[in-house]
Amino acid sequence: MSNQNKMVRALKNLAYVTELGFLLVIPLVLLLFLANFLQSRFGWGQWTTMAGLLLGILCGVANFWSFAKYWTREAKKNEDENLWK
Question: 24, 29, 45, 84: which has the fewest Cβ within 10 Å?
Answer without folding.
Answer: 84
